[in-house]
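Team,

Forwarding the record for the chain on the shared tracking sheet. I've put the sequence and predicted structure together so nobody has to dig through attachments.
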Amino acid sequence: MFSNRYIEQRVEKGELLRESGRNPYENRVARDSFTADFLDKFNYLKDSEERRDESQSCRLIGRIKFLRLMGKASFMRIEDSKGSLQIYLSRNNLGDWFNTLKKVVEVGDIVEVEGYPFVTKTDELSLHVSDFKVVTKAVAPLPEKFHGLQDKELRYRQRYLDMIMNPDVKEVFQKRSQIVSAIRHFLESREFLEVETPMLHPIAGGANARPFITHHNALGVDRFLRIAPELYLKRLLVGGFDAVFEINRNFRNEGMDHTHNPEFTMLEFYWAYHRYEDLMELTEEMFGYLFETLKLEQKLQFDGKEIDFSAPFQKIAYLESLVSIGGVSEEIIHSRDKIIEFLDSNNIDFNRDASLGYLQAELFDNFVEDKLINPTFITEFPIDISPLARRSDRDHNIADRFELFIAGTEVSNGFSELNDPIDQYERFKKQIDAKNSGDDEAHEMDEDYIRALMYGMPPAAGQGIGIDRLVMLLTNQISIRDVLLFPAMKPLNNEIEIIGE
């Protein structure tokens, strides 16, 4: 790993630092301010006659991103988390240390510098260095500056290098943090309580998905990484909490594409004595709060499309959308045989033994979903694809449920909760039949959850929002891997090569 000739040369330079009595991995460091603070504070010097202020002293820390060595002087550009700054070094100020650092300092090194502000002949506010210390000697060279780090695959695998070479990447993750913080504040301001529920489950429940399985040695039993926190959060409603939420990771052992990663972040919240209609209204309010807090325009660009987030969002019933948006004839959508014939004629692969609701879902997935660009609530889902949702009082074949679609992708799922323990037990039994018939994503029977419902869960509504997909929309990133710091990647046979200069 250290046999690359560029690395060998840098290791040798680290040794030269040690020989000169300087630790190449210094720990005693100090920073007065960031580069952006420096530029803001001393910008007035550009209009002053003196163009410098030697009475002012600042200490900064940053990574060298540019280096131009000359005989008696040198210019460097250092970068920190807030920006970058040009610094000027001379033999007159640093003495013999200047000659040594010319031999040992390179692009990529992290340095601590102290000096006074001045403006160069090219009108650039800079730091005139009086003290220079190597804080961390980088022994792997950065990619050359003109082409940078372009390979997407390598950028995901070496995110640390991606952030060094592409500062805009850090902006996406800073925005992600702001989004999560704003959501948390929004819910807390409405008296939702943030809670934490188990990651290791004895039963894989709360969603239709294939779980990851691990083994608990002390208990001698298998456990499942959670696919959803839903059943635990609803137990808390039984226990007496009126409004709870959790922002945390879920794990699903499924395929990967531009909107799916095996581990992902979900917001789930549950609200006693409310209905799914209340959730849709709350969701619109949440989006309004996010856009106001993040100072976003109501119309955003995403993947070449303009999306209008103005409230109220469009609402359309599931079966109606098959006709009005999907273009499927109404005489088809209520007949299993006709749906099967229609799907066959369109060369769509599907389970021919599926129920009517699942066949209608095939129609929706193939002919409606990608046409939902502006935020749209699809309501009144078939009951047989909604095993945890409450039946509609108006029509027992549909659920009091909605999903929010934006830019052709599901962003949120919510419904009035099923709190009838007998109905829930019967639905779990149907899920077991589906699992025994080969559906490895069907729900398991969770008897403890049924027991909890038997003690009485208040009427409630619950919702999940995919944080990763939400961040994609608000930062115009078309791949989920661009909003995950360390996305799942297929392992390589060989070690990643160190990029040479």
